[in-house]
Amino acid sequence: MPLSTKRVRHDGENETGYASRVMTTLLNFLHSNLPFFFYLSTLAAALASAVWRPHIGIYYLAFFLPLENMRHWLHQFPLGEKSVDIMLLGVIIGILSRRDGTQWMPTPITGVLAAWGLLLYISLCRGAFYLNSAWPILPSDPRVSDWKNYIEFFFFFLAAAGALRTKKQIAGLLIAMSFCFLLVNRSFHSARSEEHTSELQSHHDL
Fold first, then answer.
1. Residue 57, class by beta-carbon neighbours within 10 Å (0-12 exposed, 13-18 middle, 19+ buried)?
2. Alpha-carbon distance 139 to 147, whole Å?
């Protein structure tokens, strides 16, 4: 084989190996820093919802609300455990500021949701009185936190009614929800498959 051909082949193998190492290093870097990038994207989406397009935050919440494990990645960062609150606040600020032509829209069930949320809080106060415990006032109180997390879905519904104005935006919401459903379904089946494999292995060992 001519020397030039060997050199070309050798150079090609070196370039291929170098590209493979660079790609592996890049993927490892992205994987190890994925929670941080997720945190930055959350802040960026909240800011974009407040000053530009409120429906961005609606898409974000529709996709990530069911993915609790991924949202737990954010807890290691400042205010990471409040990511849903921050995102929803950004959406509401954008709607109240009439960004992208949005406005806070009353719905036929707005009064029902408000009454239901108030009734739930009154039940917390009644329970505190009955048990002679502290009143549910402070946000650090687990009872108040659970109540807040529950009624956030009411605000999400009302925010979506105000932020989504076109059929295209509604279709985008449905796509985000569908993609999230597929991920959750895939994760569930993967977990079940691993459990089934473990059961078969344990029976085989017996």
1. buried
2. 10
